[in-house]
Amino acid sequence: MLLFQMSKYFLTTILILFFLVTPVYGNAGSPMMWFGILHLFLINLLIGLGETKILNYIYKVDIKSIPIIFGNYVSMFFGLWFIAPHFSKFGNNYDFWGGQTNLGDYEITGFYIGFLSAFILSIVIEIPFFIWANNKNRSFFTAVKNSLLANILSNLVMFSIYLAIALPGSK
User: Fold this and answer.
1) Which DSSP state fits 29?
2) 78 partner at 20 to 30 Å CA-CA among 34, 100, 122, 147?
3) Could you tell me the maximum CA-CA distance found in the chain, to the nearest angstrom?
4) Is 96 helix (H, G, I), strand (E, B) or coil?
């Protein structure tokens, strides 16, 4: 009898939940958008640590990683959330993140323009952070060289990943 009562409550609960739920759709955002959010929250940390290790290895210096990581967050925030979407419009891409564009209609020329503009401005945005990070040589030219090298390496990797996401749905 107790088992019957428990199964009756269980069945009633299941039926209530079944009729109260809202349908969930699998098209909640584009892969470009979701990877961008992952990039913003986690990948920037890894990029900053990697850039610091590479620069310390190449130049045999002691560059601090915290300013580099912070600079990556700042440049990524401005680069991929404001600069790239704005400049991608020059290539007829009015939906840089692909959230409103149908598969096969994504303007890849706009993606290239947006990513290139974000790359160039990332180098400029990160210069003060490279000055801050280098204890021994805080010269402007050293910071420019370090920012250029670090951004070339990390942006090539990130560009390849974003391109692999965007290219299959582009025209």
Assistant:
1) S
2) 100
3) 83
4) coil
